Amino acid sequence: MKILSILIKYGDMNITKLYRLSKIHYDKLKRELQDLQKMNLIEIIGSDKKIVRLNYSNPKVVILINLLEELDKNEFRS
């Protein structure tokens, strides 16, 4: 969930930047990215500098984005 939250907040980025922002061990990050890619939640593009981005064609991603935006709105109202 941390990876998805970062991608929602900051948008597309390379794996190194995602590693720095997430503070997840690099090997674990790569495994989690593979899992997210298998679930069709993210896309990994490129061969040298791999770019990670959300798969906006997956309805689950759109629902997650809407949910997090709604939670953020409600947090500021309290």
List keywords for this structure.
78 residues; alpha+beta
Helices, strands, pairings?
Elements: H1 2-10, E1 13-14, H2 15-22, H3 26-38, E2 42-45, E3 51-54, H4 59-77
Antiparallel strand pairs: 1-3, 2-3
Which structural class do you get from the secondary structure elements? alpha+beta
Sheet with the most strands?
3 strands, antiparallel
Helix share of residues? 55-70%
How do the strands line up in the largest sheet?
Answer: 1-3-2
Rg for CA atoms: 13 Å
User: Which percent band covers the strand fraction?
Assistant: 5-15%
Q: List the total number of helices.
A: 4
**Amino-to-carboxy terminus distance:** 24 Å
Outline? globular
Can you characterise this structure?
The chain has 78 residues and is an alpha+beta fold. Helix content is 63%, strand content 13%. It has four helices and three strands. The protein has helices at 2-10, 15-22, 26-38, 59-77; strands at residues 13-14, 42-45, 51-54. Strands 1-3-2 form a three-stranded antiparallel beta sheet. β2 (42-45) and β3 (51-54) form a beta hairpin. The radius of gyration is 13 Å and the shape is globular. The two termini are 24 Å apart. The mean pLDDT is 92.
Task: Briefly summarize what is shown.
63% of the residues lie in helices and 13% in strands. The protein has 78 residues and is of the alpha+beta class.
